[in-house]
Structures are given as structure tokens and as C-alpha cells.
Automatic annotation (TrEMBL):
Family annotation (Pfam families): Pkinase
Any coiled-coil regions, as ranges: none
Protein name per Swiss-Prot or TrEMBL: non-specific serine/threonine protein kinase
Reactions the enzyme catalyzes: L-threonyl-[protein] + ATP = O-phospho-L-threonyl-[protein] + ADP + H(+); L-seryl-[protein] + ATP = O-phospho-L-seryl-[protein] + ADP + H(+)
Main EC class the enzyme belongs to: transferase
Keyword entries, A-Z: ATP-binding, Kinase, Nucleotide-binding, Serine/threonine-protein kinase, Signal, Transferase
Record-level Gene Ontology MF annotations: ATP binding; protein serine/threonine kinase activity
EC assignment: 2.7.11.1
Classification via SUPFAM superfamilies: Protein kinase-like (PK-like)
Signal peptide start and end residues: none
Protein kinase domain mapped to chain residues: 1-171
Domain of life (superkingdom): Eukaryota
Lineage of producing organism: Eukaryota, Viridiplantae, Streptophyta, Embryophyta, Tracheophyta
PANTHER family from the UniProt entry: G-TYPE LECTIN S-RECEPTOR-LIKE SERINE/THREONINE-PROTEIN KINASE SD2-5, PROTEIN KINASE DOMAIN-CONTAINING PROTEIN
């Protein structure tokens, strides 16, 4: 979907800038990401600080990077209490997306690479490029773009619901 760079704003705050690839398909994902998160604010979701069309998204900077680095890198370690706290943060973020937003948001690609950890190891859900807002859509209206291994079997049965995110979270 794109590259991410660290930047510093004029006020001195650090940000993450995502530069998306230049293609028609990717521009649709860019628009989906902006629409999905422009008005969503929750402590367990990465906050969009701004964007520049056609291909730059500016997010809050999340200091400890993605959860996958902490789970699969031999040089890093998360104790049981930290893992429990991270799981609760992810659950709270998903609950907000599914039930707390004015319009329901399905992330559709929950995986360790899309969970970021702040300086206190609080989890924040990121990468809304695959998300869907509004009424649940029929399968033939959607393109399957999740990550193999994290996709729920319901994808194959044309059943799009918040259970897709719940399945991916459980994996």
C-alpha cells in the first residue's frame, strides 16, 4: 500500500507519514482510509493528523512500532501482563469501531503488523486502508484484500460482518 516515514511538524511533534503508491486501485484505498478515520477518535486507534491528496497521510507517531516486532523478534520481549493489556486495548479499539462510531467501521485486516505500540506499550489499531463503513455490504460488492492466515472463513461464504475482525483478532 505504501511506505511510512517519520517526520517532524513545525510545532516539534513527531508524525508518521504514509506515502501511498500511485495507482487507481491504491487511490481508492487512500480515499477509503481517509473517509474511514477522518472523524474517528479513540485512544486505541492511531489518529490521522492530516492528509495531502493524492497520496500522503499524516498520522500521530507511535514510538514502539508494530506488535509483530515485539512478538516475533528474539531481541524483544513482552511479559504476560503487557500482552494482556495489549489484547484489551485491541478489543476496546475494535469495540469502538464496531459499536461506538456513528457509522460502523469494519477494519478487515487485523494482524500484528497493524497494531502499533506507544511509549507506554498501549496498543493502537492502524492501517484502515481495507476498512468499510456503513451498512454491511454483500460479498460481490467487495474485493477480498485481507492477509491470508488472518482472514475469516466467512469471507468465502459472502458473510461480511464484525465477526471478520473478531476472527482476525483471535488469530
Amino acid at each position: 500500500f505504501g511506505s511510512v516515514f517519520e517526520g517532524v511538524l513545525a510545532d516539534g511533534s513527531r508524525v508518521a507519514v504514509k506515502r501511498v503508491s500511485d495507482s487507481k486501485q491504491v487511490h481508492k484505498l487512500f480515499e477509503a482510509e481517509v473517509v474511514a478515520i477522518i472523524s474517528i477518535h479513540h485512544k486505541n486507534l492511531v489518529r490521522l493528523r492530516g492528509f495531502c491528496c493524492p497520496n500522503l497521510l499524516v498520522y500521530e507517531f507511535v514510538a514502539n512500532g508494530s506488535l509483530d516486532r515485539w512478538l516475533f523478534d528474539d531481541d524483544k520481549f513482552l511479559d504476560c501482563d503487557a500482552r494482556y493489556s495489549i489484547a484489551l486495548d485491541i478489543a476496546r479499539g475494535l469495540s469502538y469501531l464496531h459499536d461506538g462510531c456513528r457509522t460502523r467501521v469494519l477494519h478487515l485486516d487485523i494482524k500484528p503488523q497493524n497494531i502499533l505500540l506507544d511509549e507506554k506499550f498501549r496498543a493502537k489499531i492502524s492501517d484502515f486502508g481495507l476498512s468499510r463503513q456503513g451498512e454491511l455490504q454483500a460479498m460481490d460488492e467487495m474485493i477480498i484484500r485481507g492477509t491470508p492466515g488472518y482472514m475469516a472463513p466467512e469471507w468465502l461464504q459472502s458473510q461480511v460482518s464484525d465477526k471478520l475482525d473478531t476472527f482476525s483478532f483471535g488469530v
